[in-house]
């Protein structure tokens, strides 16, 4: 009798341990979202996010001041605490900037905003290109910080603050407030760049990118190489009448490539222009490296440009799945989003939109249920109005290692510059090399 009882107790203990192990294992699976995946719906065959219907038509009706086919379900009509409504006006007339920076900033990031004002957000960076910079803020109960923001807004007149709580999960509100301001107060800008305040940005490369986004930066390399080869040919044939370069060839290159994209290319471009102006033969080789050539300003000529109605929505494009493990900062349950994939979306840390894209996204957002992640939300809205995000490797959602100005030659934006002093140092060096 003794042995069977001991054996029975042993078996009971083993069963309890096994049961506990299974329970713990199942709890872990649930915690990491394994079971959630079993109940997800297929994005590619069953995606339908409220509202359903002809969203492009509804959005266009609101844009034209007409009554839409269905009533809007989402509104971002928060009150402006500070509104730099003058930014895109000159007295009673609208200004048409080439580019407007909409910088998402936290209330206490005063030093970051000042660093941006002195670097890539400096509005007079180019004499022939109109650029505007606006900082997007929410509010809080911190009255001391608010007093400092009031002073900042009065001093710099570039703070757009609305009365929503300034928290991470309200970034969609902050983004859409920026869009609403752009539509109402700066509707004639050709391009808008939505960017966080911990980014390095090359304004010069942004302007280069929007001229030919599909082939950036390859088109710059091809243009520089064409200019370099012709300038070298001029140098080799200097004083040799039989091998002289035809001025028509030089004229064609200058017409096709009116802008140089590096210090060396500026010298080569000046060399070609001198050849056209010379009454007899090419300019002297010594003149090609003259001080005048070295200091010749690079004008941001716009001969090469996209159509005004282009729907450009560009940046680093992701195709990924929702985070279902509960430890994630970006955890999303099935009630909030039940499909197994996100729509293709652009990292909202830094993205560029044309005027038409921003307008369509803004008005379509009125018919799209709010979502707390702004990049996902814009991806959903873009899908509803059939705007395909354009991917570029020159937007870095993580920090790009800086190893000298040449390493940032084509970089448009890089995350990770939360130190204002580091931003100022890197930007100054890259600017001196002609890439910022």
Describe this structure in words.
Its EC number is 2.4.1.-. Helices cover 41% and strands 14% of the residues. The N and C termini lie far apart (88 Å). The longest helix has 30 residues, at 2-31. The protein has an 8-stranded mixed β-sheet with strand order 1-6-5-4-7-10-9-11, sandwiched between helices. Strands 8-13-12 form a 3-stranded mixed β-sheet. The chain contains 15 helices and 13 strands.
Explain briefly what this protein structure is.
With 436 residues, the chain is of the alpha/beta class. 41% of the residues lie in helices and 14% in strands. The chain has helices at 2-31, 34-38, 43-46, 55-63, 110-118, 143-156, 171-185, 203-211, 218-236, 247-256, 263-277, 291-295, 355-365, 374-384, 420-432; strands at residues 80-82, 89-90, 93-94, 99-104, 131-139, 159-165, 191-196, 199-201, 313-318, 345-354, 390-391, 395-396, 413-415.
Write the layout of secondary structure elements.
Layout (H helix, E strand, L loop, with lengths): L1 H30 L2 H5 L4 H4 L8 H9 L16 E3 L6 E2 L2 E2 L4 E6 L5 H9 L12 E9 L3 H14 L2 E7 L5 H15 L5 E6 L2 E3 L1 H9 L6 H19 L10 H10 L6 H15 L13 H5 L17 E6 L26 E10 H11 L8 H11 L5 E2 L3 E2 L16 E3 L4 H13 L4
Parallel strand pairs: 4-5, 4-7, 5-6, 9-11, 12-13
Antiparallel strand pairs: 1-6, 2-3, 7-10, 8-13, 9-10
Query: What is the name of the CATH architecture of the largest domain?
Result: Alpha-Beta Complex
Multimerization state: single chain
Strand percentage lies at 5-15%
Give the neighbour order of strands across the main sheet: 1-6-5-4-7-10-9-11
As for the CATH topology of the largest domain, it is Spore Coat Polysaccharide Biosynthesis Protein SpsA, Chain A
Number of helices: 15
Organism: Phlebotomus papatasi
Keywords: Glycosyltransferase, Golgi apparatus, Membrane, Signal-anchor, Transferase, Transmembrane, Transmembrane helix
Transmembrane segments: 20-39
GO biological process, one term: protein O-linked glycosylation
């Amino acid at each position: 009798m003794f042995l069977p009882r001991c054996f029975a107790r042993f078996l009971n203990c083993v069963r309890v341990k096994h049961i506990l192990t299974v329970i713990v294992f199942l709890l872990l699976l649930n915690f990491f979202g394994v079971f959630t995946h079993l109940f997800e719906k297929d994005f590619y065959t069953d995606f339908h996010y409220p509202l359903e219907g002809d969203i492009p038509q509804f959005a266009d009706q609101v844009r034209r001041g007409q009554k839409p086919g269905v009533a809007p379900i989402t509104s971002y009509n928060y009150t402006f605490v500070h509104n730099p409504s003058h930014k895109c006006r000159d007295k009673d007339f609208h200004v048409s900037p080439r580019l407007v920076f909409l910088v998402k900033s936290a209330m206490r990031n005063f030093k970051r905003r000042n660093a941006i004002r002195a670097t890539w957000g400096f509005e007079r960076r180019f004499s022939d290109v109109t650029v505007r910079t606006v900082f997007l803020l929410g509010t809080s109960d911190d009255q001391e910080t608010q007093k400092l923001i009031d002073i900042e807004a009065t001093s710099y007149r570039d703070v757009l603050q609305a009365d929503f709580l300034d928290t991470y999960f309200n970034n969609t509100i902050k983004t859409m407030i920026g869009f609403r301001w752009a539509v109402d107060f700066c509707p004639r800008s050709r391009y808008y760049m939505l960017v966080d305040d911990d980014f390095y940005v090359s304004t010069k490369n942004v302007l280069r990118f929007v001229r030919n986004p599909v082939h950036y930066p390859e088109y710059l390399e091809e243009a520089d190489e064409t200019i370099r080869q012709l300038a070298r040919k001029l140098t080799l044939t200097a004083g040799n009448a039989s091998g002289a370069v035809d001025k028509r060839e030089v004229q064609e290159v200058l017409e096709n490539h009116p802008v140089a994209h590096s210090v060396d290319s500026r010298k080569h471009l000046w060399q070609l222009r001198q050849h056209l102006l010379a009454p007899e033969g090419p300019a002297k080789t010594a003149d090609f490296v003259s001080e005048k050539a070295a200091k010749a300003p690079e004008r941001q000529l716009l001969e090469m440009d996209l159509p005004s109605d282009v729907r450009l929505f560009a940046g680093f494009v992701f195709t990924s799945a929702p985070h279902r493990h509960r430890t994630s900062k970006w955890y999303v349950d099935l009630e909030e989003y039940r499909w197994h994939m996100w729509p293709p979306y652009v990292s909202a840390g830094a993205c560029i939109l044309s005027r038409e894209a921003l307008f369509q996204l803004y008005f379509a957002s009125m018919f799209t249920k709010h979502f707390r992640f702004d990049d996902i939300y814009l991806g959903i809205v873009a899908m509803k109005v059939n705007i395909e995000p354009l991917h570029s490797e020159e937007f870095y959602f993580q920090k790009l290692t800086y190893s000298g100005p040449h390493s940032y030659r084509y970089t448009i934006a890089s995350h990770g510059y939360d130190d204002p002093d580091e931003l100022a140092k890197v930007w100054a060096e890259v600017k001196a090399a002609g890439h910022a």
